[in-house]
User: Fold this.
Amino acid sequence: MSSEDWTIEEALNNLNQAISDKEMSIESFFEEIDADGDGTINGPELHKGIRSVVGDLLSPGQVSQIIKAFDENEDHRIDLGELQNALSGNASSEEE
Assistant:
């Protein structure tokens, strides 16, 4: 995958599709990739989670872009609410 062609929207779509294909909820996906169980996802956890669930190997810069896009409280981590907002907002923005 070329980094020039990659977008946050594409990552959101791929993540939503992978979660749907695996019949996972956003909550179960979050729990699966929150490796240390602290209630937040950091860069390394997100990198490993996207690789295991979606199958994409992202660069550190791409992982950083996703965290920045999802991280509403700017703590450099994604909590469950932020992940739900990002994924559900993307999925329903055109439909309703």
In short: Residues 91-96 have pLDDT under 50 and may be disordered. Strands lie at 40-41, 78-79. The radius of gyration is 12 Å. The longest strand covers residues 40-41.
